[in-house]
Design brief:
The protein folds into 2 domains: about 5-120, no CATH class; about 125-425, TIM Barrel, CATH 3.20.20.70. It is built from 12 helices and 21 strands. The protein has helices at about 135-145, 150-160, 165-175, 215-225, 250-260, 275-285, 300-305, 315-325, 345-355, 370-375, 390-400, 410-425, and strands spanning about 5, 10-15, 20-25, 25-30, 35-40, 45, 50-55, 65, 70-75, 80-85, 85, 90, 105-110, 110-120, 175-180, 235, 265-270, 290-295, 330-335, 360-365, 405. Strands 1, 2, 5, 6, 9, 10, 13 and 14 form an 8-stranded antiparallel beta sheet that branches.
Length: about 425
């Protein structure tokens, strides 16, 4: 395999004289063949600004920055793929901060690009190449004209057309999981929040947060447009909003209004699960799916990243337990990072939480963050780092009734996914 690198104009090359290197947290490591898959459809190659690519001389075994004025290259993976390693790079300055993306190691092998990743779900439904721009524009025009006074539809049109958000796009294409943002406030101050950062932050948010509180009518109009098929999903809690359960009365009112009209489809909420009492009421109103965001099951690590306001991991676990007991299909939005999530203590704590609480699906989501900033924030490793590939194998072995995936599934979809996974094992 060959090193992949870029010049300062963004032109990408492979170097036949040097082997590629990668990173696991702050450790520089070699890349094994069984850690690589061909670059998936929908993936994007990006240059890492103000970095130098790290490589190995195959003759001497020496590790070094690539000579010359070049930058490291990473891949941004589509849903359905779990990264195993970070790109191998060194920053020109410790003060330089990378934009909020989930960078994955990429190499040149057998005449094509390969990435350090493992497929964890069917990538086809969420392949960005399957989002036809003409059909999307037509869907936006249809809903905007049908509901000209609906501010939420106007907001989502910008998310779909401007930010190319696939969940927002689904709302207008009336497929898969559609977005229904409701909250401009949050009960956490996440270090890597993609929609709101303090004015003195080192990295700007890549998108704009919702700035108004929609009405029950605006929310229910979108929900009813989308819930027209048995497997349709509408989701509160998007990247363009805060914590949806802070708007519990609004969500409860919308659910009740919609369920007076139709029982089709599934109602989901993406949440940090900290507001247990609010979420109990939302569950009782008819919530069917819940995806709980977490970065760790260890208090010190969790608190450093989420900076929760008025809640703790104990509240999160209590919320999950209640929802699961009421028949809600609960999954984890597990924000993973090579060299951190695969620490022994992280694995043990997460398996314990899942066993106690009733989680049925782990969505392995690649954390979008500047690696150095994140590693400075969280506690140092206490045990061995087993590697991401081994970590995934441990979860499959220790939690045979829990699926490992990448996005939200309905009960029918999850049952089918588990059958396929058991057949492979």
């Amino acid at each position: 395999m060959n090193l992949v690198y870029a010049d300062q104009q963004g032109n990408v090359y492979d170097h036949p004289d040097y082997l590629p290197l990668a990173r696991s947290a702050d450790q520089v490591v070699e890349i094994m063949d069984d850690e690589l898959v061909p670059l998936p459809e929908g993936a994007t190659l990006v240059g890492l600004p103000n970095t130098r690519p790290l490589c190995m001389d195959p003759l001497s075994g020496d590790m070094m920055p690539l000579p010359g004025d070049f930058q490291a290259v990473g891949a941004l993976l589509p849903q359905g793929y779990t990264r195993l390693l970070l790109p191998g790079y060194a920053k020109d300055s410790r003060k330089q901060v990378l934009p909020l993306f989930g960078y994955t190691a990429v190499v040149w092998k057998n005449g094509g690009f390969w990435v350090a990743a493992e497929q964890s779900d069917d990538p086809d439904p969420w392949n960005p190449l399957n989002c036809d721009p003409d059909q999307l524009q037509k869907g936006v025009d249809t809903l905007v004209s049908r509901y000209p006074e609906n501010r939420l539809i106007d907001h989502l049109s910008h998310c779909a057309l401007g930010y190319e958000c696939l969940t927002a796009s689904n709302t207008f294409l009336q497929r898969l999981e559609g977005a229904v943002p409701v909250s401009f406030s949050c009960n956490a101050g996440c270090f890597g929040c993609i929609s709101e950062q303090p004015d003195d932050s080192d990295f700007p948010s890549p998108q704009t947060r919702l700035t108004f509180r929609p009405s029950v009518e605006e929310v229910s109009q979108i929900m009813l447009e989308h819930l027209q098929q048995p497997e349709s999903i509408v989701s509160f809690g998007q990247g363009c909003e805060g914590e949806p359960s802070t708007q519990a009365p609004l969500i409860i009112g919308a659910i009740r209004k919609v369920r007076e009209v139709t029982q089709l489809g599934f109602i989901n909420m993406n949440t940090n699960a900290g507001l247990t009492d609010h979420i109990r009421d939302i569950v009782d109103a008819g919530l069917q799916l819940m995806r709980v965001s977490t970065i760790s099951a260890l208090d010190e690590h969790y608190n450093a990243y989420y900076r929760p306001r008025g809640y703790s991991l104990a509240n999160v676990e209590k919320t999950i337990h209640y929802a699961a007991d009421q028949g809600v299909l609960v999954s984890l939005n597990y924000l993973i990072f090579p060299g951190v999530s695969d620490r022994e203590e992280e694995i043990d704590a997460m398996i314990g939480l899942i066993r106690r609480s009733g989680v049925k699906l782990i969505q392995m989501r690649n954390l979008n963050i500047d690696p150095e900033s994140y590693l400075q924030l969280i506690p140092p490793a206490q045990g061995d780092i087993v590697g991401m590939k081994q970590m995934l194998e441990i979860y499959r072995e220790e939690l045979p009734d829990v699926s490992i995936g990448s996005y939200t599934h309905t009960p029918k979809g999850l049952e089918h996914k588990l059958k396929l996974e058991r057949a492979i094992l």
